Amino acid sequence: ELQEAVEEVLPDLERDGIRVFYLSSASPTPGVEALLPAIEEAPDEPLPARHRAGVTADSKAMYIYTSGTTGLPKAAVITELKLMMVASLGRICGLRPDDVVYTTLPLYHSAGLLVGVGGGGVTIPVPCPPGATCVLRAKFSASQFWADCRRYNVSVIQYVGELMRYLCNTPKRADDQEHGVRMALGNGMRAEVWKEFLRRFGPVAVWEFYGATEGNAGFINYTG
Questions:
Q1: Which GO terms describe its molecular function (predicted)?
Q2: How confident is the model at residue 59 (pLDDT cuts 50, 70, 90)?
Q3: Closest by alpha carbon to 160, among 219, 209, 100, 93?
Q4: Residue 91 to residue 101: CA distance in whole angstroms
Q5: H helices of the chain, where?
Q6: Across-strand partners of 220?
Q7: Which domains does the chain have, with CATH numbers?
Q8: Alpha-carbon distance 3 to 34, whole Å?
Q9: Which of 7, 55, 83, 134 has the fewest C-beta atoms under 10 angstroms from its C-beta?
């Protein structure tokens, strides 16, 4: 869906020596590579230490584009330290190595990428085995949400406020509380939606947090 935007700036990116990838099996754009074949061919062994030589807590890990408060979206710098701090949110809230985290949030935002995928990666300190399992869905579906949770043995779900309201607005079913979800992690849920969610779907521990990609502080409602 971003193909036209990519192609518009591709000459400038190529001139600066920047490689561009589509997360797909093939690329419709000359000069843009398809990433999935490379992922499938990559070995399972950890990367050699030389690839991480010189990386410090202040090194840039990634850029995440945020809407910001004024003007056009801006690239927020995510350092290695901030990545680890945000990813540790799941562990603070009680995420376990045997959890299965289900996220339908976009991975170009901090919540899905850093808290969801990243949180699953740091539930156990290195050099232990990898942490929790993360189940990704390409697009949120209110009607298939709980079926997915049952199918993949999901124990932790991610949300933004409206997502929970969409779930509460689906037709009631006899199996609404037949799932293994024990914890919900997210932000922006209204009080009336929170109460209705618990009443309908059972005693799920809700960890509401607030943070901004470009901010330097965050909050967690650890009391529930």
A1: long-chain fatty acid transmembrane transporter activity; long-chain fatty acid-CoA ligase activity
A2: very high
A3: 209
A4: 12
A5: 3-15, 36-41, 80-87, 89-92, 110, 118-121, 145-151, 161-168, 191-201
A6: 209
A7: 2-42 (no CATH), 86-220 (3.40.50.980)
A8: 13
A9: 55
* Percentage above 90 pLDDT, the chain: 57
The pLDDT tens digits for 155-187 are 999 999 899 999 999 999 999 999 999 999 999
Global pTM value: 0.81
Residues 6+ apart with CB under 8 A from 216: none
Q: Which amino acid is at 183?
A: M
Q: Rounded to the nearest 5 degrees, what angle is found at the Cα of 181, between the Cα atoms of 143 and 212?
A: 85
> What single letter denotes the amino acid at residue 9?
V
Q: How many CB atoms lie within 10 A of CB 160?
A: 17
Sole residue written with tokens 């997360």: 23
What's the distance, Cα to Cα, between the start and end of the chain in Å?
Answer: 38
- For the record, the structure tokens of 79 come out as 């350092």
β-strand 74-79 against 60-66: which pairing, if any? Answer: antiparallel
Contacts of 5 (CB under 8 A, 6+ apart): none
Interior angle at CA 39, CA 37 and CA 45, nearest 5: 140
Which pair of tokens denotes residue 14? 């190529």
76-131 pLDDT, tens digit per residue, is: 999 999 888 888 888 888 888 889 999 999 888 888 888 888 877 665 444 344 57
User: How many CB atoms lie under 10 A from the CB of residue 1?
Assistant: 4
| 3-class state of residue 177 by DSSP | coil
